[in-house]
Amino acid sequence: xxxxxxxxxxxxxxxxxxxxxxxxxxxxxxxxxxxxxxxxxxxxxxxxxxxxxxxxxxxxxxxxxxxxxxxxx
Length: 73
Hints:
3 helices
């Protein structure tokens, strides 16, 4: 099937229009940057207590002081 130059131009215009509309779709009206400047993280998550409270074995001893010294050596 042979296409005329007008048909090809129409395809190009439609394709470009679709691409441009995808690029200019509205996003959030404004970005909110928290005081910590860590986007997507709640203020409580910046505190060790938040993570310790979530861990069921938070008080479990993984290495004693001798093992820590060996590991550091």
